[in-house]
User: Fold these one by one.
Assistant:
Number 1:
Amino acid sequence: MHEMSLAEGILRILEDTARQEAARRITRVTLEIGALANVEIEALRFCFDAAIRDTVAAAAQLDIRVLPGHGWCMPCGRTVPLAALADPCPQCGSFQVQAVGGMEMRIKEIEIE
Ligand SMILES: [Zn+2]
């Protein structure tokens, strides 16, 4: 389950931020995760809750925004919305769709006290 290493990576960034800003605690984290990033949101929440125990981020609220996925459909010759990596083109049903957006994952905001 790679969500645990994701959660630990996020926690490391939070701890670094808290140290740099001399913060007492992290109150909120906002993540942006692409719909095609291959991240299980519920699993990530679960792992995050486990990872932050007894850390400076123990009381942090986790906000997750899912960014829509996009693919380039060869037969249509244009960009189409894509809910999952293996999905066909919603316009023509072709599977010749190359994902072009929605694979990213980043920390958008960190709130500290
Ligand atoms: Zn198409």
Number 2:
Amino acid sequence: MNPAREHFSNSIHLQTSEDNVVSRYTCEGCEQNVTVYNVEAYQGPNKGTFRPIPYGCKCEDLELGRLVLRRQREILAKQRKELFDHHSLVNSDLLKASLDSYEPTTEQQTLALQMCRHYAFTFSMDKPLNLLFKGGCGVGKSHLAMGIMKALFRKRLNGIFITVPQLLTYLKHTFHDKKVSEYELIQRLKNVDCLVLDDIGAEYTRNDRENWAVSKVFELIDARLGKPMIYTTNLSSRQLYDRLGKRNHSRLLYNTKLIRVDGVDFRANDFNRRNADEESYD
Ligand SMILES: Nc1ncnc2c1ncn2[C@@H]1O[C@H](COP(=O)(O)OP(=O)(O)OP(=O)(O)O)[C@@H](O)[C@H]1O
Ligand SMILES: [Mg+2]
Ligand SMILES: [Zn+2]
């Protein structure tokens, strides 16, 4: 050991010996045993003077650790938001939807909401489960799917919400102002913790079946087997089978829990409320 270091280490050792103990206590902040020593200043203007210095308190270290953790969480939350914002294709009326803002009007809707809460609560990448929302137009299927996504964000999971017809338009056309490249989008959709494919089946027409863009969606589902997916559709099982074809339909049903949503069209209801004074829409 070099002489300066030896001197320093010996001095510290001497100064924190039993002879120099002023007091002992347990710190309320970190619950560590703290010993206060009378320590002599080696250098500076106060050289040679003694002052009490506590040893053993971990409060500052803990606070620093908490700060680092908080900062990390903030960065991850920002990344989750950016991932969702940059890659989701979703109608603006759904952006505010949450499980808390869903107001069930039927028993089945109440049950659907309970199932959504349970799904979000028990969501695990280790035990992935898919959901398929089925029901008529405007009953809140997409709303509930978005609500789950928001609940997952709070659990620090990431997710993307894609309205399938919008995805196909996006893939089929060459827009100059595309938010991200197709390659990047598809990669993100394959890897995200939870992917919502909203309105699946709505994009299919007879001619479209062989379309590369349609096959892209199923390439996606295929690549995500074993990773959680949420689908919504207002097609019947028969229609879905006919439109998707046997192989794709089979993938959609694999490890998937069905949630039925009944009720009246929320949008039509809203229209009727706003126009209650009108005699008739015709
Ligand atoms: N029970 C509800 N409580 C609050 N808002 C609702 C409810 N049901 C629907 N909405 C709202 O009504 C609009 C339509 O709902 P949503 O888009 O979820 O319907 P959908 O079942 O997905 O219909 P579609 O089959 O046409 O896609 C949304 O703005 C949604 O937020
Ligand atoms: Mg919908
Ligand atoms: Zn402490």
